[in-house]
Design goal:
single chain, 317 residues, alpha/beta, Four Helix Bundle (Hemerythrin (Met), subunit A), Rossmann fold, 2 domains, 7-stranded mixed β-sheet, 3-stranded antiparallel β-sheet, 49% helix, globular, binds 1,5-di-O-phosphono-alpha-D-ribofuranose
Length: 317
């Protein structure tokens, strides 16, 4: 029962039935919560071993969004801490359940907070561009609209999976004027745009942002026209391992998301590439809007060291 729930969540994340960096992090915490509730482990050590195995499995579902390992590690680190303290199995189970709830609550609160902070940067009359589908970005735009601000949003389709259509539909439903454009039309409209706002799947210690493929192209175009470029991201999108020199892995997805199976069969000489994310260097980013405040990308490392001291400590040991 438990194993199959974890596998269901693994498959839902991998197939992108559940997608978006924040949502997959919460889905992993929910799966671990359910695993803790229904576990038949006989000892605290067995319970922690089981959860660790499930957590490691969930982490393997998608490689780029660091929110996923940060969510699993938040729960597992707490579970191991309780085990070392020598608590009984039922206490440990309750503690794990409350850690999962805690992560999920923090995550939803962070999105709300980002909406409140980011909405201050939206001005009536703005033309805003966004790419892909980010709940942090959507929250900012919907909050600004609820405050009575009038603005227009250009949403890129975001090939190959067209998540831009989701964003456009949600914004329109919230009374926001919205236009959907092919990704390749970004430069044509950029000279009219006041600010670009995108989400993030991971943020490196040097302030580089890893987000949906095409983000860096839009950032370069925004730079050309001196258009402000903001990133909206909860702090669990910070990648502490990048402090130790690790690179963020870029997910390569199936070519079938780009062309049909029959097209591939008819054109065996063509290698189809489908990277899901790209890296936007810090110099193309004006601000990173987090639930802990607004940071220049070059300053994000200080927040990272404060929130994730462990990797640094490990490196110094
Ligand atoms: P929120 C998404 O990844 C997009 O790249 C989006 O910008 C980012 O996660 C952050 O989304 P995917 O899962 O967490 O669609 O702000 O590949 O919702």
């Amino acid at each position: 029962m438990t194993e199959s729930k974890v596998e269901d969540t693994f498959n839902a994340i991998r197939s992108m039935e559940v997608r978006g960096a924040g949502r997959i992090a919460r889905a992993a915490a929910e799966a671990l919560r359910e695993a803790a509730v229904s576990s038949r482990a006989k000892t605290p050590a067995q319970l922690v071993a089981e959860l660790t195995r499930y957590g490691e499995r969930l982490k393997e579902s998608r490689p780029t969004a660091v929110s996923l390992p940060n969510s699993v590690n938040f729960v597992l680190t707490g579970a191991h801490r309780e085990l070392r303290r020598g608590v009984g199995k039922e206490t440990l189970r309750k503690r794990v359940i409350s850690l999962c709830d805690d992560f999920i609550n923090r995550s939803t609160n962070a999105v709300t907070m980002i909406g409140d902070i980011g909405a201050k940067r939206i001005v009536s009359g703005d033309l805003i561009m966004t790419h892909c589908n980010s709940e942090a970005v959507t929250q900012i735009l919907v909050t600004a609209r609820a405050q009575g601000k009038d603005f227009h949003v250009i949403v890129t389709e975001t090939r190959p999976l067209y998540q831009g259509r989701i964003t456009a539909a949600v914004l329109a439903r919230n009374g926001i004027e919205v236009s959907l454009i092919p990704d390749s039309a970004s430069r044509l409209y950029m000279h009219e745009v006041d600010r670009v706002i995108v989400g993030a799947d991971a943020i490196a210690s040097n302030g580089a942002v890893i987000n949906k493929i095409g983000t860096s192209m839009i950032a370069v175009i925004a730079h050309e026209t001196r258009t402000r470029f903001y990133v909206a991201a909860e702090t669990y999108k910070l990648s502490p391992r990048t402090l130790l020199g690790d690179l963020v892995e870029i997910e390569e997805r199936s070519p079938r998301e780009v062309v049909s199976e029959s097209w591939m069969t008819e054109n065996p000489g063509v290698k189809v590439m489908n990277p899901s994310f790209d890296v936007t260097p810090a110099e193309y980013i004006d601000l990173i809007i987090t639930e802990q405040g607004v940071y220049p990308p070059q300053g994000i490392v200080f927040l990272m060291k404060e929130l994730y001291p462990e990797p640094v400590k490990l490196a110094l040991e």
